UniProtKB/TrEMBL annotation, chain A:
<dbReference type="InterPro" id="IPR006654">
    <property type="entry name" value="Trp_synth_beta"/>
</dbReference>
<feature type="domain" description="Tryptophan synthase beta chain-like PALP">
    <location>
        <begin position="88"/>
        <end position="397"/>
    </location>
</feature>
<comment type="function">
    <text>The beta subunit is responsible for the synthesis of L-tryptophan from indole and L-serine.</text>
</comment>
<dbReference type="InterPro" id="IPR001926">
    <property type="entry name" value="TrpB-like_PALP"/>
</dbReference>
<protein>
    <recommendedName>
        <fullName>Tryptophan synthase beta chain</fullName>
        <ecNumber>4.2.1.20</ecNumber>
    </recommendedName>
</protein>
<dbReference type="GO" id="GO:0005737">
    <property type="term" value="C:cytoplasm"/>
</dbReference>
<feature type="modified residue" description="N6-(pyridoxal phosphate)lysine">
    <location>
        <position position="108"/>
    </location>
</feature>
<dbReference type="Pfam" id="PF00291">
    <property type="entry name" value="PALP"/>
</dbReference>
<keyword id="KW-0822">Tryptophan biosynthesis</keyword>
TrEMBL record, chain B:
<feature type="active site" description="Proton acceptor">
    <location>
        <position position="51"/>
    </location>
</feature>
<dbReference type="GO" id="GO:0005829">
    <property type="term" value="C:cytosol"/>
</dbReference>
<feature type="active site" description="Proton acceptor">
    <location>
        <position position="62"/>
    </location>
</feature>
<comment type="pathway">
    <text>Amino-acid biosynthesis; L-tryptophan biosynthesis; L-tryptophan from chorismate: step 5/5.</text>
</comment>
<comment type="function">
    <text>The alpha subunit is responsible for the aldol cleavage of indoleglycerol phosphate to indole and glyceraldehyde 3-phosphate.</text>
</comment>
<dbReference type="InterPro" id="IPR013785">
    <property type="entry name" value="Aldolase_TIM"/>
</dbReference>
<dbReference type="Pfam" id="PF00290">
    <property type="entry name" value="Trp_syntA"/>
</dbReference>
<keyword id="KW-0028">Amino-acid biosynthesis</keyword>
<dbReference type="InterPro" id="IPR018204">
    <property type="entry name" value="Trp_synthase_alpha_AS"/>
</dbReference>
Length: 414, 276
């Protein structure tokens, strides 16, 4: 195998994944971004850094988490599947990668631990982060408490109102939650204000970006920290089934859990992949599907697919899942979409809501609404595959945070 | 370039022994219809160079004042074609006043850099400041602007150290914009000593005129910075006046700009001679 032909050798030296990625930040931030790149390169070569990261993932996060065969879901889908040419019912075996069992209930913590270790290496005592639903905010506040760092979380004022339990969690963990009243008062505006704070406090503050997006080296380092998901899944499926899966499915907002699952498999041509975008009310209405309904542009430090109008103004995203409610996507996904290595499938709010309930009823697992999008995609794809084929779905987070939203959508009063 | 209005204006100011007054407003704030009168008020008040902000939904390098101006403009329906129309008509009314477009990459590049550079040339725009395209990503916008004879004005900040400065200067033209504070527009005020030190450092590295901005809000501050820099940029303070007075802002803008210009004039030895 030549490294040159590997799909796993991106980004290039200047942080580009094909025509995507890069470093589109104000001059004030450039020196810091370059310094971060240097520190990250050194950390990656340092066995002690890796040892500490791995140790914390094991003893604090609870890794490895299981790869679980969802037998009842598999069988339910087979019951409605057509017969294959051999007379046997179609319907692939569905495995769930249980990221929701991590400490703090989602994949977010993997990345936060990695970045907190980098912050400490750079001598920064303060961390900031943006958050939508509050999951990344809680994960950042958690590692800040763990490392004894001062923590500020920027959160859209609308989200502060919608996500009171997570706001309280962050405060319990010692973080200051800053409500962002600018713009649409949601995730993208929280990111704007986090960048504004960072540019004014570069000397002592580290920005823990929550997804595999932003200026280089963030998309690369977030991916690397999240790749533990795919490395574990690969090892586990080889042990259980003795072979690689036929299909990987993961939800994509910014896309950190998806790239974490996909990346270790990118060079295995026989493994197909689906990234699931939030189609909201449908692609003709309000949605958050940047690849299906957007175009290449520049925002928040990187070139990537964005929801925008003909003048390049960013349009508002919508998804029932706050974690997918963002008008952009990580640059590596834009590249994987463009070269056709990964298929991106839109799933609507209603489809995700149905799968949210289905997984709870069939498997006793309440998924995050983000993850429910991936389950909905698996429900569509599994019946078209043979019964001896294997799908791995990333169950990126647990759904406790979403019960109010779901109850509201179903018209249930709590 | 047929005539380098920026170079000519800096030369005129130097001859007069004062710093150039660079003023910023957002195009279409509060409306496209109200903008020409505001631009004329800047010129009438004594502005040497006009920075016309291109509104963007996500102006992450800007503080509350200019962010609100962006939202007011977009809220009233400003489109990119309106901005180039404002530039074209400004050029017709003020053939000698340099006009610089300032903004973010996405609205500038959404139709491609050649399209943008071509529009700038047709409209008589002299230079472009693109906040979120650092030298590392110059290929996105630099070559097209240079080919069209439009200055690409770069930013140097307190974090731009000696090792990095040559990269910033490579491909910079028109003038060098020194961002006086590590931060967003309109917030903190830089210490005068730090500004003086920075300008001296930049002057040692380039022959380009040095304009200083970010956090310059009063005539006194403008005068102090004008004593060491080739240009003084005032933005948020003017944008605040537009925020308060809306469609009727032009005379208030003119009065404030005249006070800034008066303070810069007072630095000039020639000015003292003629008024003594």
């Amino acid at each position: 195998m030549t490294i040159k032909n590997s799909l796993r050798s991106q980004p290039d030296a200047s942080g580009h994944f094909g025509s995507f990625g890069g470093r589109y930040v104000a001059e004030t931030l450039m020196p810091l971004i370059l310094e971060l790149e240097k520190v990250y390169k050194a950390a990656r070569q340092d066995p002690e850094f890796d040892a500490e990261f791995t140790q914390l993932l094991r003893t604090y996060v609870g890794r490895p988490n299981p790869l679980y065969y969802a037998q009842r879901l598999t069988e339910a889908l087979r019951a409605g599947a057509p017969e294959g040419p051999n007379g046997q019912k179609k319907g692939a075996k569905i495995y769930l990668k249980r990221e929701e069992l991590n400490h703090t209930g989602a994949h977010k913590i993997n990345n936060c631990i990695g970045q907190a270790l980098l912050a400490r290496r750079m001598g920064k005592k303060k961390v900031i982060a943006e958050t939508g639903a509050g999951q990344h905010g809680v994960a950042t506040a958690t590692v800040a408490a763990l490392f004894g760092m001062e923590c500020k979380i920027f959160m859209g004022a609308k989200d502060v109102e919608r996500q009171k339990p997570n706001v309280f969690r962050m405060k319990l963990l010692g973080a200051e939650v800053v409500p962002v009243v600018s713009g649409s008062q949601t995730l993208k505006d929280a990111m704007n204000d986090a960048l504004r704070h960072w540019v004014s406090n570069v000397h002592d503050t580290f920005y823990i970006i929550g997804t595999a997006a932003g200026p280089h080296p963030y998309p690369e380092l977030v991916r690397d920290f999240q790749s533990i998901i795919g490395r574990e899944a690969r090892e586990q499926i080889l042990e259980i089934e003795g072979r690689l899966p036929d299909m990987l499915i993961a939800p994509v907002g910014g896309g950190s859990n998806a790239i974490g699952l996909f990346h270790p498999f990118l060079d295995d041509a026989e493994v197909k992949m689906i990234g699931v975008e939030a189609a909201g009310e449908g692609l003709q209405g309000k949605h958050a599907a940047s690849l299906a309904g957007g175009a290449s542009g520049i925002l928040h430090g990187n070139r990537t697919y964005l929801l925008q109008d003909e003048d390049g103004q960013i349009t508002e995203a919508h998804s029932i899942s706050a974690g997918l409610d963002y008008p952009g996507i990580g640059p590596e996904h834009s590249w994987l979409h463009e070269i056709g290595r990964v298929e991106y499938m839109p799933i609507t709010d209603d489809e995700a809501l149905a799968s949210f309930q289905k997984l709870a009823a069939l498997e006793g697992i309440i998924p995050a609404l983000e993850s429910a999008h991936a389950i909905a995609s698996a429900e569509k794809v599994a019946p078209t595959m043979d019964a001896d084929q294997i799908i791995v779905v990333n169950l990126s987070g647990r759904g406790d945070k979403d019960i109010f939203t779901v109850a509201d959508a179903l018209g249930v009063e709590m | 370039m047929t005539a380098d209005r920026l170079a000519a204006r800096f030369a005129t100011c130097k001859e007069a022994g004062r710093a150039a007054l660079v003023t910023f407003v957002t195009a279409g704030d509060p409306t496209v219809a109200a903008t020409p009168a505001i631009l004329d008020a800047l010129v009438a008040g004594g502005a040497d160079i006009i920075e016309l902000g291109m509104p963007f939904t996500d102006p992450m390098a800007d503080g509350p004042a200019i962010e609100l101006a962006n939202l007011r403009s977009l809220g009233s329906g400003t489109k990119t074609r309106d901005i180039f129309h404002l530039a074209t008509t400004f050029r017709a009314r003020h053939p000698h006043t340099p006009l610089v477009l300032m903004g973010y990459a996405n609205p500038m590049l959404v139709r491609g850099s050649e399209w943008f550079a071509g529009q700038c040339r047709q409209a008589g725009v002299d230079g472009v400041i693109c906040v979120d395209v650092p030298p590392e990503e110059d290929a996105e916008i630099g070559p097209a602007l240079r080919a069209a004879g439009i200055h690409l004005i770069r930013l140097a900040t307190p974090t731009t150290d000696a090792a990095r400065l040559p990269a910033v200067l490579d491909g910079a033209s028109g003038f060098l914009y020194h961002v006086a504070v590590a931060g967003i527009t309109g917030k903190q005020q830089a210490a005068q000593a730090a500004v003086e030190q920075a300008v001296a450092r930049l002057k040692a590295a380039t022959d380009l005129p040095i304009a200083v901005g970010f956090g310059v809000r009063s005539a006194e501050q403008a005068a102090a910075i004008g004593r060491v820099a080739d240009g003084v940029v005032v933005g948020s303070a003017i944008v605040d006046i537009i925020g308060s007075h809306g469609d009727a802002a032009a005379p208030f803008v003119q009065e404030f700009v005249a006070s800034l210009r008066g303070a810069l004039n007072a630095n000039s030895p020639h000015y003292r001679e003629t008024t003594a």
